[in-house]
Design brief:
Elements lengths: L7 H4 L15 H11 L4 E5 L2 E4 H17 L7 E5 L4 H12 L3 E4 L6 H11 L3 E5 H11 L7 E5 L25 E2 H7 L15 E6 L9 E5 H15 L6 E3 L7 H13 L3 E4 L5 H11 L3 E4 L1 H9 L13 E4 L6 H11 L3 E7 L4 E5 L19 E2 L4 E5 L12 E6 L11 H7 L5 E9 L5 E6 L4 E3 L2 E3 L1 H9 L4 E11 L3 E10 L7 H9 L10 E4 L13 H9 L1
Parallel strand pairs: 1-11, 3-4, 3-5, 4-8, 5-6, 6-7, 10-11, 12-13, 13-14, 24-25
Antiparallel strand pairs: 1-2, 8-9, 14-15, 15-16, 17-18, 18-19, 19-20, 21-22, 23-24
Helix pairs in contact: 3-4, 3-7, 5-6, 8-9
């Protein structure tokens, strides 16, 4: 086997060509063509409101002119501090039409985190929800380069407030800010001159979560975004007649590419519901007949455990993908048994502009017999994934090492951080920090992050393997495993578990369950049952918070 990254091409015949010709040089070109081809198609559905492609184009054009009149131009950075609302898409298109760069900001971020991103990016403007401005941004903005603040409300672009999400929301624009709705009205009918936007131009700065140090702004270019929007379209078969359910946060690379860029490229309808709440999202699927989504496995666990969500709610949602966190095989089986739909794995990072590996739509991911791990997939178009040893050399199938990725979706680097770029992306190859292996057929499996490995008396334990076993227990809803100090072993295994609604289980029962299924050094010596595991807004379980909890 000459290249351990590529044997899947010799055996995989599900109709995926090895190469993917880039359809457009930038997202701006893709959008112009979408407007020409399907101006009357619904672009966004938001509760009872809707925007056609033509209307979205007019709104983004008006906003672009308003921003230009206020000094925003090519290369300028603008913070976008919003939830999953139509204004997110309007803002992105407006900025891209000016050649400006969106700085995607997690709406859960508080003062210190917001200040870090605004300062690092050098943003000179901010578009945010009125509530986020009042609660957070008003105190942060004066200490940054931001000179323009435009606020908006989740009440816009729909007329039926959902009592579960929006009942308590009131309009309250603060002094010193401008109102987005007012700007769209005042600039209605105006459009900016066509600007040549290039593939190498940065479209979005998406910041890493900061789990291994200060957040870094990955420079996702227009070429990166077009390539992976096309990859979603071709790999999964999401066409113009599909309806995309936006469950991933739009600030996250999954939401930016797997929801927004994909829907704009097709074009097809994007369904938004402000933020994730299982009942609201399930109702949106049924009302708008959503067919495709991609989100963290915690989204599907929540839907599975929501008492009022029935198979009828998700009947049309036949193309389901999950990424961002490991998928326990037991959860995939339970979801398919109840809803009738298989959850396909997909793997990518901020630095790969969403997918690098994926399970094709009509395939099922194999489960490794030795570890019980569910495969993350095979490399998508034009993408080479290698398993590298400590010396950087490719390892043969079956051996565990670091995933190293190269392809058209890999970012050119981090914003104004040449040293970090050189360390993580030598020669344009992304050293992911994720550990895994490839089987003899070319399927890739993730084990864990390097830093999460537990060393118990010299034995190596990967948390993922222990977590997958705990997920097999009928009472377990979510599980996370960490290493904790131990006087005898140096480190030992501890599990944190949340239970399904109405289920009961005690610590000794869960320990015994794992002990029966794992080697003696792997099973958890302690299990703590808690109501909710700490997570990022994208659904990744925060092991660092559990480690902090364990030592307090």
């Amino acid at each position: 086997m000459d290249d351990p990254a590529r044997p899947w091409l010799a055996r995989y015949d599900a109709g995926q060509p090895p190469g993917l010709k880039l359809a457009y040089p930038s997202m701006v070109h893709a959008w112009r063509d979408a407007v020409r081809r399907a101006p009357d198609r619904t672009a966004i559905a938001y509760f009872d409101g809707a925007l056609t492609v033509r209307e979205l184009d007019a709104l983004s054009g008006a906003f672009a002119v308003a921003l230009a009149d206020r000094g925003v131009g090519r290369g300028d950075r603008v913070g976008v501090y919003l939830q999953n609302d139509p204004q997110y898409v309007i803002t992105l298109l407006a900025l891209w039409r000016l050649g400006a760069i969106a700085v995607a900001i997690n709406p859960m971020y508080r003062h210190r985190e917001l200040a870090t991103l605004l300062t690092d990016s050098g943003a000179t403007a901010l578009v945010c929800l009125e509530s986020l401005y009042a609660d957070v941004a008003a105190e942060v903005v004066p200490g940054t380069a931001v000179g323009l603040v435009i606020t908006t409300s989740e009440l816009d672009h729909q007329s039926r407030d959902d009592p579960r999400l929006l009942a308590g929301v009131r309009r309250a624009r603060a002094a010193g800010t401008e109102d987005l709705a007012g700007l769209l009205t005042g600039y209605a009918g105006r459009t900016p001159p066509d600007l040549e936007v290039h593939g190498d131009d940065v479209a979005v700065l998406t910041y890493t979560s900061g789990t291994t140090g200060p957040p870094k702004g990955a420079m996702n270019t227009h070429r990166n975004m077009v390539f992976n929007a096309q990859s979603y379209r071709e790999w999964i078969g999401v066409g113009e007649d599909d309806v995309v359910l936006g469950v991933a946060p739009l600030f996250h690379i999954t939401g930016l590419v797997g929801h927004i860029a994909l829907a704009l490229l097709n074009p097809c309808t994007l369904v938004l519901a402000h933020r994730f709440e299982p009942g609201v999202v399930a109702d949106a699927v049924r009302e708008h007949r959503a067919t495709f989504t991609v989100g963290a496995i915690t989204v599907f666990i929540a839907l599975l455990n929501a008492p009022d969500v029935t198979p009828d709610h998700l009947a049309t949602l036949t193309k389901i993908y999950s990424g961002g966190a490991p998928i326990p095989p037991a959860t995939v089986e339970a979801f398919e048994e109840w809803f009738g739909h298989y959850i396909h794995n997909i793997y990518g990072l901020t630095e790969t502009t969403s997918p690098a590996l994926g399970v094709p739509l009509h395939a099922r991911a194999p489960v490794d017999k030795a570890s019980g791990a569910l495969s993350a997939g095979v490399p998508i178009y034009d993408t080479v994934v290698r398993i590298a040893g400590p010396d950087g050399a490719p390892l043969p199938p079956g051996e565990i090492g670091e995933l190293v990725i190269e392809g058209p979706q890999v970012v050119p680097g981090y914003w104004r951080k040449p040293e970090e770029t050189a360390n993580a992306l030598p020669g344009g190859r992304l050293h992911t920090g994720d550990v895994g292996y490839m089987d003899a057929s070319g399927w890739f499996y993730l084990v864990d992050r390097k830093k999460d490995q537990i060393n118990a008396a010299g034995y190596k334990v990967w948390p993922r393997e222990v977590e997958d076993v705990l997920y097999e227990h009928p009472a377990v809803r979510e599980a996370a495993v960490i290493g904790v100090p131990d006087a005898y072993r140096g480190e030992t295994v501890k599990a944190y578990v949340s239970l399904k609604p109405g289920a009961t289980a005690a610590e000794p029962e869960l320990i015994a369950f794992a002990r029966e299924r794992l080697a003696a050094y792997k099973y958890p010596r302690a299990v703590e049952i808690i109501d909710e595991l700490p997570k990022t807004v994208t659904g990744k379980i925060l092991r660092r918070e559990l480690r902090a909890r364990a030592v307090t």
